[in-house]
Amino acid sequence: MTFDSLEIINTTLVSEILAMDRDKLWQLAETRLSCPKPEKPYKTFVFNLLEKQGVQRVHDLFFSFYEDDPDKVTYWVIEDLCFEGERVPLDYYARCGYLDSGASCYAKTSDVLIPLDNEPWDDDEWRFDLMRFDVLTGRDVERIVQSMEKNIDSLTINTADDIPKVRSIMHRCYLDEGYNAAYIYGL
């Protein structure tokens, strides 16, 4: 069973990545690959190959995949470098804090933030596995926190320990306009 969840996304970096050509994209990726390994694993396999294959092999794969499908590789870089922190699953009452608000109808979606060509090949298969999400502001996340606090005794997936995690996401969104929360649908 999958659940809706919340995670920080660096929307400024997303915009910068979308404007990069292949060489700039690789320079960014290579810079990040030379840093200490992040606490959470990379989501895409290219960066996960680094330890086993080395930077040159990752470089060759990166360029090969980019030639075949630049949008896919761009999305991989976004997925690995722009999502930060812990992904927090959300139960019914946490979700309702956002989804029951009229403001949720006007939230920017991942398709607007990351306008890559991801048309379906057929009814069941998308060209690449683009995670669908809404882009939330600090106020949207604040509604989630308020709903969790109001319904703390009814939470089933979340616990009281999750409230500070979600509140931390809220503060990050309020304090840095380059960051938003990704409300990820657990389809």
Please summarize what this structure is.
With 187 residues, the protein is α+β, with helices and mostly antiparallel strands. It is built from 10 helices and 5 strands; from the N terminus they run βααααααβαβαβααβ.
Describe the structure.
With 187 residues, this protein is of the alpha+beta class. It is built from ten helices and five strands. The chain has a five-stranded antiparallel sheet. Helix 1 runs antiparallel to helix 6, helix 5 crosses helix 6 and helix 9 packs antiparallel against helix 10.
Considering the chains and any ligands shown, give keywords for the structure.
187 residues; alpha+beta; 2 domains; five-stranded antiparallel sheet; 5 strands; elongated
Overall radius of gyration: 18 Å
Give me the side-by-side strand order of the main sheet: 2-1-5-4-3
* Structural domains: how many: 2
| Oligomer type | single chain
SSE-based structural type: alpha+beta
Low-confidence stretches: none
Topology:
Layout (H helix, E strand, L loop, with lengths): L4 E6 H8 L3 H12 L11 H4 L1 H4 L1 H14 L1 H12 L1 E7 L2 H8 L8 E2 H4 L19 E4 L1 H13 L11 H14 L3 E6 L3
Antiparallel strand pairs: 1-2, 1-5, 3-4, 4-5
Helix pairs in contact: 1-6, 2-5, 2-6, 5-6, 7-9, 9-10
